[in-house]
Design brief:
about 350 residues, mainly beta, 4-stranded antiparallel sheet, globular
Length: about 350
């Protein structure tokens, strides 16, 4: 196809809705729906959502071909995973759970030679709706421009203070200065943006309501076995998260809308020069993939499929790195000689060049 056609296809592909696939025996029976995004899979069960982050290790280059011998096949790349589970404290353990807004696509699994084990014509949906996770509160998962979102829909008169989020699989949980929730994992940081809270007027206008995450450390009061009159307090390793809202009109429905993002560090272990890396330019293509340039003084700056895999020497050198829409390396290279180079700016065309 012509370059304009390629650009059109890429633009459309980047805007495809997130697809939720119904479980019809292709996954564990606890799973009701599955969504796949760049760098993750999401499994939805009646009692929790399970986010599986995955990152492919750099492929090992095959051994150099010798005369008269075939080139060695490259070893398959290993895949690293991290799992984060989100549950709702005190919620309905068996809510009604349905796919809504059917999509035209279907999914087929043809695995093995036994047709009885195949799964075909599996429907897909743009949204998954949980009914009454708390009294008067529904929960909906969907995708928007390639990002994963979930909404709490609070009916008139229902109490949003019921909502309590608990996370398992994160080594640390913090609230950033921006108000975003940061979940540390082995593969990087899962960022849940500060919730957008609003009420819809009859004319469709959104009235915003101030809201922020409230970190609550769960405490257990323990009585000493040697002296029962002495009580001690032990806190859970990870806090539970509530959502605190400003005053709003309780006669109207309320929507609490966080967005789940994935971020990563980019850099090496620095050098004696003391500044490590600096990013001076970034560009984003139609699929949400980022292209970064700047300078580094680290001899172990991460490289992948690199035109120049080693540091050129001198005070510092430029780098060019492409990150997928979920923060994984697509390629990364040094760019420079033995002097001092840096990249001030970068642009990308419709073909990702």
């Amino acid at each position: 196809p012509s370059p304009p056609s390629i650009a059109t296809v890429q633009a459309a592909y980047g805007k495809l809705p997130l697809s939720f696939e119904a479980n019809q025996g292709q996954w564990d029976e606890q799973v009701r729906f599955l969504a796949r995004g760049p760098g993750y899979r999401l499994f939805l069960t009646p009692s929790e959502s399970v986010l599986v982050l995955h990152q492919r290790e750099p492929t090992k280059e095959p051994a150099q071909r010798k005369r008269g011998k075939p080139t060695a096949r490259p070893e398959p790349a290993a895949i690293k995973q991290a799992v984060v589970r989100m549950t709702l404290e005190g919620a309905n353990p068996t809510p009604a759970l349905d796919g809504t807004e059917p999509l035209p696509g279907i999914v087929n699994y043809f695995i093995g030679n036994d047709p009885a084990k195949w799964r075909t014509n599996i429907p897909t949906y743009a949204k998954v709706q949980y009914q009454e996770v708390y009294p008067g509160i529904d929960l909906a998962y969907y995708g928007n421009q390639g990002t994963l979102e979930y909404d709490f829909i609070v009916a008139p008169g229902a109490d949003p203070n019921q909502i309590r989020l608990a996370f398992e699989g994160a080594s640390d949980i913090q609230v950033a200065d921006s108000g975003d929730l940061l979940l540390a994992t082995a593969l990087g940081e899962v960022r849940v943006q500060k919730p957008l809270v609003y009420q819809l007027d009859p004319d469709g206008h959104k009235t915003l309501v101030a809201g922020h995450y409230l970190v609550e450390q769960k405490a257990a009061h323990l009585r000493s076995s040697s002296n029962p009159s002495v009580l001690s307090t032990r806190y859970s390793a990870l806090p539970h998260i509530g959502i605190q809202l400003a005053a709003y009109d309780r006669t109207k429905p309320l929507v609490i809308d966080p967005v789940v993002l994935y971020s990563t560090y980019l850099g090496g272990s620095d050098s004696a020069l003391g500044y490590g890396e600096r990013g001076f330019g970034i560009a984003v293509d139609q699929s949400g993939e980022a292209y970064v340039t700047g300078e580094t003084s680290s001899g172990d700056f991460p490289t992948l499929h690199a035109n120049q895999p080693t540091f050129g020497g001198g005070v510092g050198t430029a780098f060019v790195t492409k990150l997928t829409a979920r923060g994984a390396l697509a390629y990364s290279t040094y760019l420079g000689g033995s002097g001092y180079e840096w990249g001030d700016g970068i642009a990308v065309d419709g073909r990702g060049q």
